[in-house]
Specification:
285 residues; 0% strand
Length: 285
Amino acid sequence: MKFEETLSNDHLREFLSCCEADFLNVMNHFIYGQSPYTLPRTLNLYIDKLGNNELITYERRKGFEEKFKGNLKPTYLDHSILNEICKDHETYDIEDCVLAILAWGQIYATKNNFILAWKSLNKPEIKSFLEDIRIGRSCNRKEIYQKFTDYRLSGELKGLNTPYFTKLIYFLMRGEARGYILDQFTAISANVLLKKNIININKDNKVDCKKNDAEVYEKYCEFIEDLAIYLDNYFRERLEERDAKIEPKHAEIFIFYDNKDNPGWRSKAAEIFEEKKSDHLLKVD
């Protein structure tokens, strides 16, 4: 699938206009300490939840607080910091990475979400699987996504679905061909841009692994990679001024980004999607 061959022209001009407005914020998103995002739920909140539910020892809690000091309250985690945490095997173990990723993703700090997710991800088999991803023993994004799906559908993995386990895939994987974050916002945006239902979105506008298998995920990842090539060409002159290039990680943020003061493509895509909800953009479950 090539982006330029499959892209619908219906909303292309509007999308590119939003990309131009968001260009600096998206590029700065991956520069240490310059991300425009803030995290209302602090890392300290999640550590408290684990302690209050007796899911970590006193020593483990102190270990978290020592390793993440300066990032506890408020939480200053951004893409670049989180990437460094997941790459640093000497300082951070897999539990540190999982805590940081879930906090960065702002998972609901409830018993049915964060607490269930933490318990599931710390089961020996799943924890070993996460470590395999991190060290590169598991390096095929389709296979990784499928295994997460199998855990989810079997009941072994609770508290998180596609939007959160693709966050784990994205941050734990190494190398160029990573898996990318797939949530309701990126799914809606992809379907609208392509004017094709490559991702199945349910009646609550959620992305559920029951309706989206590893083939769907691979199509989405290929779309992100093709979009990066397209946008890199489109912004080539501006990128040369910065000595930079647009990578898939930027392309994903371009379809996700929304400026609160000046709503961007994410809001516009959501409006278009709602108008076309009974059309071919959506397969209702």
